[in-house]
Amino acid sequence: MKLRVVILSLFMAFSWSMQAQVNANDSVVAAFMPSFSYAYQFPGGDVAKQYGNNSTIGGALMYKTRKNILLSLDVNFIFGSDIKNADSILRMVLTDNGFIIDGNGVYALYNMYERGYSINFRIGKVLHLLSANPNSGVLLMGGFGYLLHRMKIDVQHQTAPQLEGDYGKGYDRLTSGLALNEFIGYFYMGKSRILNFYAGFEFYQGFTRSRRDYIFDLMGKDNSNHLDLFYGIKIGWMIPVYDRAPDKYYYY
User: Fold this and answer.
1) Which of 58, 118, 174, 252 is least surrounded by CB atoms within 10 angstroms?
2) 35-238 belongs to which CATH class?
3) Predicted TM-score of the model (pTM)
4) 63-87 per-position pLDDT tens digit
């Protein structure tokens, strides 16, 4: 029994010692990397008919192998306030002066926003181009996922029943579908757990459809297929999970 304890202790000590030699500055390392990101996007295709520029914030769980292959599963939340053709979309409930009368018989105060999210799986490669160390360089990624976006109509105090509940669904342009994504940029992973980031250009192609059975201003259902494009600049901050070696060794 004591022999087993000694062998197990030696094995654990050896494993810890090997892990402690990991240094992102002089060797390629494998690591899990929770990350947080922000992107500023420009719309194209069908989605550009409804919305202007938007932003996204997201989180991801990334894993980099010892061959600098990068795997990522991420969720990104879409938000914006540039709504196009708002008067046309709400024309069924607007007065001649462009106002909405609420349930109290007065003008309702409201705002319209773009909201949505995407869930993506990506795979990529850190290339040894412009490399600050063996774990950094130009990053190429591609993947697929699910994209959803809609129009949020926010009425102050929720006093306009014609825009609430099932009625509101007739105006919100809920749209979703499968999407492809690509990224090209720079990936930096250093010896510090704080200064680890990526930045570059991101592209989405969403193959979407309306998810509402009836749209009021169209007087029917939208049965068309949509091509929703997003182009953006994205930056992300990563927290590598691995044991770092000391910068120097001293012998006595």
Assistant:
1) 252
2) mainly beta
3) 0.83
4) 999 999 999 999 999 999 999 988 8
Please, which residues have CB within 8 angstroms of residue 9's CB and are 6 or more apart in sequence? none
Give every CB contact of residue 186 below 8 A, 6+ residues apart in sequence.
Answer: 130, 136, 137, 138, 139, 198, 199, 200
Residue 14 backbone zone (phi > 0: left; psi -120 to 50: alpha; other: beta): alpha
CA-CA distances (angstroms) from residue 11 to 1, 23, 29, 217, 246? 15, 21, 21, 70, 21
Give the pLDDT confidence of 122-157 residue by residue, as tens digits: 999 999 888 878 999 999 999 999 999 999 998 887
Contact assessment for residue 58 and residue 50, using Cβ atoms and an 8 Å cutoff: no
Structure tokens at 21: 């030699």
Classify the phi-psi angles of 130: left when phi > 0, otherwise alpha if psi is within -120 to 50, otherwise beta: left
> How far is residue 231 CA from its own chain's centroid?
13
The candidate with the shortest Cα–Cα distance to 209, out of 148, 151, 166, 167, is: 148
Of the candidates 19, 240, 17, 247, the residue with the CA atom closest to the CA atom of residue 136: 240
* Interior/surface letters 71-97, b for 16+ CB within 10 angstroms, e for the rest: bbebbbebebeebeebeebbeebeeee
Residues sharing a CB contact under 8 Å with residue 154, sequence separation 6 or more, in sequence order: 110, 111, 112, 113
